[in-house]
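To the team - magnesium ion complex, inputs and output below.
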Amino acid sequence: MAMKEFKTESKRLLDLMANSIYTNTDIFLRELISNASDAIDKRAFIALTDNKIESVEGKIVLGFDKKKRIITISDNGIGMDKEDLEKDLGTIAKSGSLEFKETVDEKDTMDIIGQFGVGFYSGFMVADKMEVVTRKADSDKAYMFTGTLDGYDITSAKKDEPGTAITLYIKDNTKEKKYDKYLDNGEIRSLVKKYSDFIRYPIVLEEETINSMVPIWKKAKKDIKDEDYNEFYQMNYYDFEKPLKTLHFKVEGNTSYTALLYIPCKRPFNYFTNDYKLGLKLYSRGVFIKDEAKEIVSDHFRFIRGIVDSDDLSLNISREILQEDRQMETLKKSVDKKIKSTLEKMLKDEREAYETFFTEFGQQLKFGCYDNYGMNKDQLIDLIMFKSSKEDKYVTLKEYVERMKKSQKEIYYATGDSIENIKELPQIEKVLDKGYEVLYFLDGVDEFMVSIINSYDNKQFKSIQKGDLDLDTKEEKKEIEKKTEDNKDLIAAIKEVLKDEVTEVKLSNRLKSQPVCLVSDDALSIDMEKALKAFNQDVKANKILEINPDHDLFKALANEYSKSKEIKEYAQLLYDQALLIAGLTIKDPVEYTKRITELMIKSINK
Ligand code: ADP
Ligand code: MG
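Output:
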């Protein structure tokens, strides 16, 4: 029997399918079942207006025969006549995915096929021959379409009822791939469960309906109990805890979709590793499209879990992927917006829940502000909180600014590993004494984030460990100038000793009970130096040694120095102490210990 050649484009798609040993071949079943479901939809729709066409209860029947190595997929849908077969299966590929292929390499194409499928031809991933016996709903003539890699043929056939039955002749096993698995009841069942569970018509295998047909997110809210929502979440995400927040909503308009989304109570243990997988699934009219649907939610909301079921995607899916991309973009915008408004509402009305959320996922939002050169900072900034010196509780930037003192021009923050650690900073006492609130920057990302967002409500962020705080009154400034003048030889001597370590040594009013501290200039901070060191980046902050002129230690030193004693040891000790308080390592711990030991001996022998 002479076969017709497939049209060139179809042939290319066919080759792509036949050789796609590295793609997810499982999806062929989803594609063929979706076609069957579409065909039943069409029949039901036409039956509404055309009384020649009888409406029936739609049903999809699966069968397999291990010995003959065949799978069959039958439906009682609209069916096809000879022209349909020629047009729809013979020249299938005006496909958008093929046009797409011109511009991307093979591997990318495979990914696209894996994600969206390209319909009927995907059968050739697992079969080397496909037979389609079909009878159109308004006709008593039936046809058989036989397709192989070499071409296709259409002949007359017999079929009792309208509809379509597709037989796949499953390939022999190869070294890379065991096609046998598709000839197994359990495997077929699990593929249906995974990809086609929510197809609206029963999918019957060996007389048993194996799909559940109505997905929970398609049910009316009033018919769903909290337990149902929670159970669906816990089963799907293997979470012992109930979700913190459940969102079930429908969006109509440009892109219509239904979504069932969850915010988890706890951050998954691998959340900040490469192993973490986004728990968001994309469906199209009840048909599973893909896991980890990164396309439809922004990275900064990647904690979200659940399902987005679009009404518009599937009809065009295999045909116009480029357009699809735009649709995905719209979908993403809409999903993002919904998550954002939910978080805002939580912050406003359910403070405690929001704080729980923020403790788990706040870092992610901060990364979001910082990422892409701050592209999303305006969207996210009001969702960010910090603990602060006022009661050690969370505060938003808005709240902070609202309760700022009149005289305060900048937003103060301090960086450290823990709240205790920050409270002990020599620099913080004075700021608190003046009645200012200080934000605690406890996450490595915090300081990088403010370096990107720069200001909030026209107020700059100001580290109390950096540069000049400008807290002093005129008199205080004068006083410091005088003390500096009085001790200029001592200060110069200390500076000489430390000239390779610090850019400046100065007296300051920043300190209260501590003798010394290190601050950096306005560029890189000391904590950024530490953070970057963790990434093997050896950059140094410019360090300034600030000395408290009112401290007994300085007074004693000034006294000693006037008696022209050696200053070297003391200067070095002061600097090492400042390093330790700042959480940095000292250059020579052995030397440091020696100096302390000698001082101890001296003081004991006195
Ligand atoms: P798509 O479903 O995106 O249109 P397919 O390659 O899956 O692309 O199918 C091509 C066409 O073949 C369908 O649009 C439909 O007209 C026809 N077709 C495929 N399977 C069936 C079926 N089971 N019953 C009726 N028509 C079918
Ligand atoms: Mg299809």
